[in-house]
Amino acid sequence: MKKHFRLLLLMVIAMGITPLKATSQTKPIALNKKNPHYFTYKDKPTVLITSAEHYGAVINLDFDYVKYLDELQSKGLNLTRTFTGAYVEPMGAFNITENTLAPPSERFICPWPRSTEPGYASGGNKFDLEHWNDAYFTRLKDFVSTAEKKGIIIELALFCPFYENIQWSISPMNAANNINGVGKVGKDDVYTLDKNGGLLKVQESLVRKVVSELNAYSNVIFEICNEPYFGGVTMEWQHHIATLITATEKDLRVKHLISQNIANDSAKITNPHPDVSVFNFHYASPPTAVKLNYGLNKVIGDNETGFRGQQDSTYRQEGWQILLSGGALYNNLDYSFTASHEEGSYKYPEKQPGGGSDSLRSQLSHLLKFMNELDFVRMKPDKSFFTGPLPPRTRVFSLSENGKQYASYFLHGRQVSPTLSLPAGKYTVEWMHPVSGAYTKKESLNHKGGKVVITSPPFEFDIALRIVKVKR
Asked: Which one is the CATH code of 25-377: 3.40.190.10, 3.90.700.10, 3.30.450.20, 3.20.20.80?
């Protein structure tokens, strides 16, 4: 057999055909087989946590994504979310200054090349939707490859609705901006199966192209559409795209996860598409969405927040709530990342709708560390081991593997002394301050079983608790 293989290889080389290079042997990020509420990546149980830029890392040529990814890696964060370029924003949209998703027209790169015909609404030539922009796909793949080497997952949002006419007016898919005579529709008909003015074929081609180009990479999750509950995006169209992603990868080596964005805040998911494995919500605090949909046995995430002011504590506590309620993905919009401030040092003005900072990224890294110190795939949302009252304003979010490990996050208050019901055994009890990541109180508990009162150290806003049974 080996002799025949060598002979075949020599024949291939002699014919001038270059053998395919081996792609990454890392298995793609997947649902954890023991507990599909979580991920597995590089053979390890995984949760995804980040504070990341506003989705323009690829389409904005002024954005140095290597510096950006270096910053995420330095904090131990392992996720970023990116748009393909089918959607772009005008400068000043949503009061976001230095918006990475709003590059100058001449610095905007997308899957389709510019034509020789002038007339693009933002300046420059129109787009040709029947051809591909090789420079774009080179940049996209380099971005994904660079992130893969740094252990960072890319959640790639294929499409985004057009919130207002201004966004639609500058989209390459708008008939006014392309030379192909497609897209002569209003913004609310773009993502439909029957009213799209010829755009469905363009969208299908883009999905096949992007999915095929990125098939070799282990660190990609394909999101159907950002915030489809705006702009007339139909569920039938979303399901069509999910089916198309799966069909495109049917005969390819790697099968990637598909993500669907469900709602702002929360909603009960009904009739989920069978190929969707990650269900994401935005601004999901309190984390009702996790509780409502935990029975799906899929990942529930919160992959956008950031329009609730500029306090780090707002976004830190949202991440802790999601993860300590059984979610597995959290992404805060971090406006300290801009082109020219890719390391996350931009000082945004007070009018900015959200926050983000070096400090917040460090705080979220403590959450990721806390989760990784648990055997979380064996845990589930559970507060039944609390048997006594907490201070009136204090809220608690908890996971447990009964009798073996417990993790809780307490929000509000200055000190807590919860009454717990635990099986007999010897336990370690540790309290972490989420801002510093420091464990400031550690003790052993030799427990005969039943109720026990434990007391936290003083805290200002929030505190986390970990209880683990000592193995004999």
From this structure: 3.20.20.80
